[in-house]
Amino acid sequence: MKRLFRLAAIHLFTVVVVLTTFADPVHAETPETDAQLAAEWQAAWDFYKFYECATAPLPVTGRKQVSRDISIDIDAPIEHVFEVYSNVNNHVGLHSFLKRMVTHKDWTEAGTHYIDFTAIEEIPVAGVPVTSKTHAQQRIHPDGFSYETDSWSLPNVVTHQTIVFQDLGDTTRVTEHLTFEASVLLIDFTVTNGVSSHQETQEGLKQAIESGVF
């Protein structure tokens, strides 16, 4: 009975968010205000924390987790690469889908820099651009040259990222450890498109940094 209740609650929440997120096949300028996006972020974050706790282990819920590592070498000092790369606003426009970042909260605690944000994307569906929102929290560790990001998007896709920076002298190696969680029916699509998106962003950042744009 408890499991049925959880599944019903999850289904209801997903339906509500689908209606609020995909009601308008429009453009990256969402109809919601930043305050409304912040409220959506909080709802997604609360659901994410509940879901991660209540549904483990993943196979019980028909979900699957897949991890991938991708790396790139950038010809620039680690301090500069880390500063540019860890600023998610610099990622806008480097991937064809990503159009805007909305920051909800930005603070530092015990040496870790926290940022709560929503990424606004335009995803072509049957030739029509549909606005999608990914709610995320980033945790930047300046002393360790690394950061983490946890994100949630429809239809209940979770992505965990740990990005580490290695000093190779005049070159910096950036390695992204990516873990995707999704329905077993969507996991292959999620991993393929997620890895491709991150690789495209990596290449864009490399070109921008090495050319002096950043």
UniProtKB/TrEMBL annotation:
Entry annotated with the keyword Ion transport: no
InterPro entries: START-like_dom_sf (IPR023393)
Domain of life from the UniProt record: Bacteria
Signal peptide: 1-23
Keyword annotations of the record: Signal
Keyword presence, Signal: yes
CDD domains noted in UniProt: SRPBCC
Protein name: Polyketide cyclase
Native source species: Planotetraspora thailandica
